[in-house]
Amino acid sequence: MTMTTKPEPTTSVATPIQNSLTAGRLPTPAPWLILGAAIAVSAAIFGVMGLAGEAGYNWGGALLVGALLYIPSIWLFSMLVEGRRRAMDRLVTALVTGAFVLAMIPLISLTITVITFGLNRFDADFFTMSMRNVTGEGGGVLHAIVGTLLMTGTAAIISIPIGLMTSIYLVEYGRGQLARGITFLVDVMTGIPSIVAGLFAYALFSIFLGPGTRTGIAGAVALAVLMIPVVVRSSEEMLRLVPNELREASYALGVPKWLTIVKVVLPTSIAGITTGIMLSIARVIGETAPLLIAAGFTQSMNWNLFDGRMSSLPVFVYTQYANQGNPPEAYLDRAWAAALTLILIVMALNLIARLVARFFAPKFGR
Amino acid sequence: MSTASTAIKAKQRPGDRVFSGSAVFAGSMILVTLAAVALFLIVQSIPAFFASHEDASILPESFWSYVGPLLFGTIWAAALALIMAVPISIGIALFISHYAPRRLASVLGYIVDLLAAVPSVVFGLWGIGVLAPAVQPIYAWLVDNVGWFPLFSGPVSGTGRTILTAGIVLAVMVLPIMTAICREVFLQTPVLHEEAALALGATRWEMIRTAVLPFGRSGIVSAAVLGLGRALGETMAVAMVLSASGAVTFQLLTSVNPSTIAANIALSFPEAFGINVNVLIATGLILFIVTFVVNAIARWIVSRRQEFSGAN
Amino acid sequence: AANESGAAPSESASSLSGNLVGAGASSQDAAQQAWIAGFQTANPDVTIDYDPSGSGAGRETFLEGASDFAGSDRAFDDEEVAAGGFAKCAPDTDIIELPMYISPIAVIFNVEGVDTLNLDAATIAGIFAGNITKWNDAAIVALNPDATLPDLAITPVHRSDDSGTTENFTDYLGAAAPDVWTYEADGVWPFEGGEAAQGTSGVVDAVTNGTGTVGYADASRAGDLGTVAVQVGDEFVEFSPEAAAAIVDASPEVEGRSEGDIAIEIDRTSEEAGVYPIVLVSYIIGCQQYADSENVELVKSYFSYMASPEGQDVAAEAAGSAPISDTLREQVTAAIDSIQ
Amino acid sequence: MSKRIEVRDLNVYYGKFLAVEGVNLEIEPRSVTAFIGPSGCGKSTFLRTLNRMHEVIPGARVEGEVLIDGNNLYDPDVDPVLVRRQVGMVFQRPNPFPTMSIKENVLAGVKLNNKRISKSDADDLVEKSLLGANLWNEVKDRLDRPGSGLSGGQQQRLCIARAIAVAPEVILMDEPCSALDPISTLAIEDLIEELKLQYTIVIVTHNMQQASRVSDKTAFFNIAGTGKPGNLIEYADTTTIFSNPSVKATEDYVSGRFG
Amino acid sequence: MSKRIEVRDLNVYYGKFLAVEGVNLEIEPRSVTAFIGPSGCGKSTFLRTLNRMHEVIPGARVEGEVLIDGNNLYDPDVDPVLVRRQVGMVFQRPNPFPTMSIKENVLAGVKLNNKRISKSDADDLVEKSLLGANLWNEVKDRLDRPGSGLSGGQQQRLCIARAIAVAPEVILMDEPCSALDPISTLAIEDLIEELKLQYTIVIVTHNMQQASRVSDKTAFFNIAGTGKPGNLIEYADTTTIFSNPSVKATEDYVSGRFG
Ligand SMILES: Nc1ncnc2c1ncn2[C@@H]1O[C@H](COP(=O)(O)OP(=O)(O)OP(=O)(O)O)[C@@H](O)[C@H]1O
Ligand SMILES: Nc1ncnc2c1ncn2[C@@H]1O[C@H](COP(=O)(O)OP(=O)(O)OP(=O)(O)O)[C@@H](O)[C@H]1O
Ligand SMILES: [Mg+2]
Ligand SMILES: [Mg+2]
């Protein structure tokens, strides 16, 4: 305690500091200095203790331990200089930032992995060819791109209206028993495991189209079953955020309820709803297991949702990885490139949705 | 003005009726779908409940002794994932909503959203190829140095493909959706309440504790439930990453790990025939029920203090 | 897609057209893709889909009549055949089962500085059963006096999914080392212990990424990993296509099956020179007589292509399988000719 | 273009809770009527029963009759949407539609009802309504800017313009000035003065000066205690209410030193 | 327990937009100062600079000095958290924490500082603060009910209780009565009268009667036009401002017939 820079009496917390508004504060660059010191100490520990490993100095480990060391250090320093509450604040700041950085590590690692491996086959052939009559090297994913877009698109066409209308019902019309029942059922529906959805769609279409049939539409239905609850949940949240004032303003003008919903409520919440829909699409577009079961797998182009098997990008990635032939690198390269393609597609959809949302979004501000 | 007086008398407008009718229709579609799924699951499961090893070769004895360890593994893996993901996603959401500079925040939000788009197969590939080898030395160190702690006891897995790794992969997978919801909710915290806290002389953290977190509590629970639902049902990534056997063990770092229901279906379904198929579907039914129970508990938690909720 | 439309060679004499669906074992998927590619190139109006959904699923699908043929890592067993009910086939007719895809299973390992090891069945069984836990165990050293074996823990890796590979591998262990390996042959790994990984790729990845790991996988995927030469009689045999084909020839057929149902019971304990006993035989299963004669020509022609030396070579190239021997081909061809 | 309103034995409920009890009232056409009373006495609640906005709230219902020119609003076959077109409403907090420009906001009542209107008619209507709401000069150069970009007082007048654009016959205003500064308040009071030449106006206010300035008649509501229903205590000419009320409670309330 | 505030050459910005320009002002301890002026002239903005709440808004910043008992609030090493503990604030719309009970709301600020306040101390403090805010009698039986269940006026007084519970030396109030009915307004005006014996109080109001009733000194702010910065036009004793202002604009504003 002899080191404290500020001889403030720390005992009288309840009585305000009379003479000055300044409390002891760490100088602005202090956190950075402490971070640097923490990393240096950790680096030294790694050096001395020989934790570095034979393969060379373990920089990653040193940085990680340094960062971990920073968290208690900043708390300690702040505690000594600035007092308990500030210390807590700094600790939480460090933790929150730490959580963010920590989450960035897998993201960056994943991105780097997908891009470096994916770029090997990111060529013109890859986007203009299917896998028909291709063995070993070469080939492309056009058929899987088409399949993914067709099936996800159909799933979206099924589930967005149903999901949106259901959430409208829950927010605008639903009262009492039926609404509570539907909320409950939507909850139940969020619990359907994806593979069960696949089994269900497969069994359902076996009834209509004969046993054992695997078609794009079955895949789309499986995806829709997974997608609807996400759409309902997110749209419901967003519709509830629309202030009642606006609805009342519209009713007071003699606008019928349905027009109020269509022209006032939906446009006001469109940004949130689009975000929710994008999340739901992202949720299903990468599904593998249900599509493998319901839509099967083919090497050829298939534009017909109602006849024949249909490939999709995730299934393509999976089969390329799982059933590698000769040379295995060709299969792995295709798998990664297809994964990269899938991520890019979702990115593009996301961007489009954001633009749409921005276009319709309420225009606030002066 | 007798014209006006009759004018206010009109029958219900067709637009309204069509619109509310289609909303009800959409709602009942959910009912129908769900009934169909439930019916399918139950009908398909019934033979499994009474099957023994003779009927279905994958059953050790009865159905329940088969599903028990799987159920344990499912819950254990999801719990591990959630223990990691909930604090981190709250952290990220707070970072984006209350710590990062405005400009940066929306970009960061977008980046995290993108993680949601990564297909589970890719998480699987990444888990096998990148994550597991990277964490294996840490596991080895843990077993050597804190192996006395039951969760960390050895022998360490030689490949790092343990339940903890699967938990990490699951955590990374559920992060985006949980973060997105938490972030939206935190951003909705009324400025009034935030300023009320600040005006009382709260530090940023204290403001978050008094205004933001209580307001976002139900949102956090919703997010956790959605994340949990995803973690419980995730199939491919777990199947690919986890070194699964039927064991029931809490050890995190060994080669012998419990399997999960969804992963087990994926692993066993291709070779399944006869009653085995029913057995696997029945495990799906169990998973369905578990997820639902978790959901119901979460609803109950949220509704318990409704009176004090932020939505006023 | 660019490769689909204009691919038709104009002078193609082929009159075949139609759509054939097969489903089943993922083990033969790479071979099937090669066969399909070769066949479709020669017959541009034909589309064949092979769904690598798994042997069990493949057999179920065929049984339901949803596919024209199945690929399976095991033949239907006696009861299943007796039960009949194959929807695609004419009532009360038999099925044909053709061992068209033979693939050696390699025992692969990852120990620095060791490329190959000589092991006998008992030692392999000991390793996978968890009795032998160190690479410098006396049993291994005794068989490999020249190798420099480290004091390193052995991590055995097995398949976590239900698979024909596991069934064949455990069948070998049980037959060749019954004292050490007391479990029945099964597609599911019979006990808890060791590392598990999904699919051939998972096992290969786990062995590659780990240290001191050992596993079993389709030989074509062994890559740069160390492989085991298995003791047969007095010699140690490395896996090779020829050795794998040889064991099939040296093994008896399952008795009591109809003509054309060529189910083989691999003789894992054969001591004949140059056979490699750990093999997987994957069958093509079709009908002796199809209920609907529409696709029969196509089926016969496709099956014949698979069995032809050319077809077997394509598969060997693409999937690393072992071409079937000429004696076996004769039987297979006869069976195909009988299809109607 | 204005109507007489009669209220007979009106009870207003929120679910089981009786919020306003036994109101009898007659409002003359082309007049301004002010509702005053302490918080929670049911002024807003009662006001909203006059154009059936009350029933928008789940569980809310009404007993009794509200007659507009002799027609009971609460007859079973009356269409509330048509009622609201005849009885417009302005709320306490200005609530322009955030997704719409100033012009679209004014036209909202017309456009949202899917009425087709020619561009020149629309422009005329916008100008007329904004002029009527005393806002035209301030916004005529930026009709395409979002309505939420205006100041509070301007937003409130925009809402009034929006309300009069559908040509109602009665306008209800629930504390239209409480969020506004004196200058905007003045502008709106002037506006009420003008509007009353054409419309029947009912206004809720906490500001007694405002009530005495703008209204012809005043209704005083009171409440006996929390959980009790609100009652109409006294209804008379504004001058009477403020100078010579017949009920003690009214006198106590209006003679408070505040306002 | 009260402080003198001096403001020197204060410019207040929102990003690039200069909202308030060149304010010089001295506020005596234990007095009530009212800020009046038309909407958008920067009253709230200026008020919020007095406890550094301004900087909570992204991009907002300040030039110049605000001295409290001679210490500049905007010195680089001043801790805004400490400033806000000494300078409390009450907002226009009552904002009790909805997740907390009445009691927890009162203790919210205290708990931040002193986690381990004993139960009896806490009860004492709650009673003292609620008594100070004139709310004790109305809520003493339901301290554990949510604060959001109170009426608007009660909520506002709850917010005042919450503000005085942390024992600040200055209390800033931004239109504390504008959402309230006259009875609640009266209660709060009475309260201000009492609080001024202990605290320095600054209040923004649109209600000139209110300003003249409660304040000792009044500051009139004005704005030349939209987009222009607001200015302090005149600052003097309340009686002077309302009876004999020295600037024409002030006279125009206070002599409006409204209030
Ligand atoms: N949506 C609602 N649901 C249930 N009760 C309500 C609702 N709105 C108002 N009330 C209750 O009805 C009574 C009358 O409320 P109302 O808002 O009409 O009062 P008011 O006179 O307008 O008050 P103020 O001057 O504060 O606006 C109050 O007791 C109130 O709590
Ligand atoms: N968050 C903000 N960002 C940008 N500009 C703002 C912000 N808040 C207020 N302003 C602008 O600053 C100026 C002063 O606003 P302020 O709210 O201080 O006015 P006021 O005098 O309090 O008005 P009122 O009486 O309506 O409350 C206005 O031009 C306003 O548009
Ligand atoms: Mg009201
Ligand atoms: Mg203001």
TrEMBL record, chain A:
Gene3D superfamilies to which the protein is assigned, alphabetical: MetI-like
One Pfam family named in its UniProt record: BPD_transp_1
GO terms for cellular component: plasma membrane
Entry keywords, A to Z: Cell membrane, Membrane, Phosphate transport, Transmembrane, Transmembrane helix, Transport
Lineage top rank: taxon: Bacteria
Transmembrane residue ranges: 32-53, 59-80, 92-120, 140-170, 182-209, 215-232, 264-285, 335-357
Cell compartments where the protein resides: Cell membrane
One term of GO molecular function: phosphate transmembrane transporter activity
Domain ABC transmembrane type-1: 145-353
Example of a GO biological process term: phosphate ion transmembrane transport
Membrane topology according to the record: Multi-pass membrane protein
Family recorded in the similarity comment: Belongs to the binding-protein-dependent transport system permease family. CysTW subfamily.
Role: Part of the binding-protein-dependent transport system for phosphate; probably responsible for the translocation of the substrate across the membrane.
Record protein name field: Phosphate transport system permease protein PstA
Gene source species: Agromyces ramosus
TrEMBL record, chain B:
Membrane topology category: Multi-pass membrane protein
Recorded coiled-coil stretches: none
GO cellular component: a single term: plasma membrane
Domain ABC transmembrane type-1 per the UniProt entry, residue ranges: 71-298
Principal cellular location given in the protein's record: membrane
GO MF: phosphate transmembrane transporter activity
Record family assignment: Belongs to the binding-protein-dependent transport system permease family. CysTW subfamily.
Function: Part of the binding-protein-dependent transport system for phosphate; probably responsible for the translocation of the substrate across the membrane.
Name used for this protein in its record: Phosphate transport system permease protein
Classification of source organism: Bacteria, Bacillati, Actinomycetota, Actinomycetes, Micrococcales
UniProtKB/TrEMBL annotation, chains D, E:
An annotated GO cellular component: membrane
SUPFAM superfamilies from the UniProt entry: P-loop containing nucleoside triphosphate hydrolases
Keyword ATP-binding assigned: yes
A GO BP annotation: phosphate ion transmembrane transport
Highest taxon, organism lineage: Bacteria
GO molecular function: ATP binding; ATP hydrolysis activity; phosphate transmembrane transporter activity
PANTHER family xrefs: ABC TRANSPORTER I FAMILY MEMBER 17
Protein name: Phosphate ABC transporter ATP-binding protein (PhoT family)
The species this protein was found in: Agromyces ramosus
